[in-house]
Amino acid sequence: MNAKEILERLVAFPSVVGTANGEIVGWIKDYLECHGAVVNVLPGPEGDRANLFASIGPRSRPGYILSGHMDVVPASEPGWTSDPFCLRADGEVLFGRGACDMKGFLAAALATLPAVAKMPLSRPIHFAFSYDEEAGCRGVPHMIRQIGNLCASPLGAIIGEPSSMVAIRGHKGKAAARVEVYGTTGHSSRPDRGLNAIHAMTAVMDVAMETIEGLRSGPFDQAFEPPYSTLQIGTIAGGRSVNIIPDLCALELEARAVAGVSPTVVLNPIKVAVKALEKDGFRTTWETKSAYPALSLGADAPLARLIEELTGTPTLAAVSFGTEAGLYQAAGIDAIICGPGDIARAHRADEFIRIDELAACEDMLVQLAKTLQH
C-alpha cells in the first residue's frame, strides 16, 4: 500500500479524541505485523483506548522513535464540502479529518515500512502512536513510562506534527485547569443569606490578573512571541437569573510557559486563591485538564543536526503550538518536531495534505533508516 491508500484507511476511522480507538489500533497493528514489526498494544487506564508501540530492527540497541497521535478533533466545523471521514482526492490534494493533523505522518511512516523492513538495520526504528493528544497529550505519558521495558534507550524521537517538513526545536509548555466555586443560592433581595459564587470567583480572577502582569517581567525566550510565559482565562460561566444568588461559578484557564518554567507552577497562585475561598464557606474544585512541559532542543544537538542533513533545511527555533515532544524530552529522550503538512490547515473544515508532502516525509524517513544500516 502507498501512503495515499494508507491515509484513506486511517481517515476512515473516526478516532475522535476522548473516544474508543480499538479499530484504528487493530488495523495499524495488523499492518505492522504483516511487515515484520514487533508490536505492543498498550491499553490506557480509560479501558477503551490504547497506545501502540512497534519496532523494526534490533530492539536491544538504541534507535529512533517516530511519534504521532491517532486521535483527531471532532469534524464539527461548518464548511466541509465532503464527508470528513472519507478521504477525498482533488488532483494532488487529499481532504479529510486528520489528513494533516496528523494521520498524514502516520501514513507516510507506515508506507516506508516495507522498504525499511528489507534493510539490514543495525539499529531500530520504533513507531510510537498515541491516543488523546488533542485533549492535552493525555495518552502518551503512559506509553513513555513503558518504553524502557520495550527497547534500549532511544537516540531520539521525531514527532511528526505538521511543520512543512521543517524541523522545530522548541515550543512552550502548557497547563490548563477548570475551577468550580459552589456557594449558597437564595433570593437576591437577601444576599446576606446566601454565598455568591460569582462574587467569590472575582478574588480568584484578581490573583490571575496579578499573575499575568508578573509573567511579563520574564524570564524571557526571544524565540517566542510573546517572549515570556503567559496566562489566560478562557471561559467563565455562572448564575441563572439576575434575581437569584448564583451558587455556582466555573472558570477555565491555561498557562503557557517558556522552557525552564513549569506551566503547572504558573497556575499555583490561582490554585491557592481557590482553596482560600473554603474558609468563607464555599466549596471548590480544581481539575487539571492537561499539562505538558516545554520543548527546548539545542541547535547543535545531534538529533537537530541529523534532521537538518536529512531534510536539507535549517531547523526552526520554536513554534507557538504544543506537542508531545516536551514529554519525551522530560523523560530523557531528545525530541524534535518534523512532519508533512501545515499546522494552519489543522482543526478546520476541508483539512488537507498534498501527495508531494507525504512523499517528502517518506523520503526523509527512508534516508533516516539508511543511516541505521550495518
**Total DSSP E strands:** 15
Structural class: alpha+beta
If you compute it from the alpha carbons, what radius of gyration comes out, rounded to the nearest whole angstrom?
Answer: 23 Å
Query: What is the helix content?
Result: 25-40%
Overall pLDDT: 96
Number of helices: 9
Question: Which topology of the largest domain does CATH recognise?
Answer: Aminopeptidase
Q: In which order are the strands of the major sheet placed?
A: 1-2-6-3-7-14
N-end to C-end Cα span: 27 Å
Description:
The chain has 374 residues and is of the alpha+beta class. It folds into 2 domains: 3-170 and 294-370, Aminopeptidase (3-Layer(aba) Sandwich); 173-292, 2-Layer Sandwich (Alpha-Beta Plaits). Helices cover 29% and strands 22% of the residues. It has 9 helices and 15 strands. The strands form 4 sheets. The chain has a 6-stranded mixed sheet with strand order 1-2-6-3-7-14. Strands 10-11-9-12 form a 4-stranded antiparallel sheet, with helices on one face. Strands 4-5-15 form a 3-stranded antiparallel sheet. Helix 1 packs across helix 3 and helix 3 packs across helix 9 (355-370). The model has no long low-confidence stretch (mean pLDDT 96).
